[in-house]
Design brief:
alpha/beta, two-stranded antiparallel ribbon, 234 residues, nine-stranded mixed β-sheet
Length: 234
Amino acid sequence: MYKRVVLKLSGEALAAGRGFGVDVTKIHEIAGEIAEVHKLGVEIAIVVGGGNFFRGVAEQAKHMDRVSADNMGMLATVINALAIQDALEKRGVFCRVMSAIEMNQVCEPYIRRRAVRHLEKGRIVIFAAGTGNPYFSTDTAASLRAMEIKADVLLKATKVDGIYDSDPVINKEAVKFDEITYMEILRLGLKVMDATAVSLCKDNNLPMIIFDMNQPGNIQRVICEEKIGSLVTA
């Protein structure tokens, strides 16, 4: 079993198909799965996106200044982080939100050593506001935080059960990769995560697993090293 993991959740997953906002039922389902894994003694850090509210590179932001749009996207991730924190605490799990943008009234500022200490004390840590910088995605933030806290693996929860050579929703003949390298992802131009995040993981030998989070129990299965999803190695 992995000892310390970073779980990357998309904002869209929290909307549960509604497209916007937070679906209360879905967020409590996710929190329940995370709480069950936490009971096993796994140190869990979470990075959450903000696409269910605002995304700096989305159609809604096309006429906006990129820096302003990305700042709005980072604030959206804080909303999601607070929602996840609330759902986890209702299950009796101690949890801390740490933001890369300081907002002391609602959450802690991100300090690496403090984050590691929270994990060692058995608290779940939710990293919000991405990297705190525009032009960097939450995928890049997840890669960066995973390396900073020395996580064993980066787990990316998606709506598909792994990495395919083309979109499996559009192409029914798409081929799934059980294992693939970061270099192959870059060479084939696969849209798993942005190139910055892929390069960061590759350069620092951080393994990543892409898996389907819509299948109940998958978070526990992947942390217990069952062969599900797609494993990406350097």
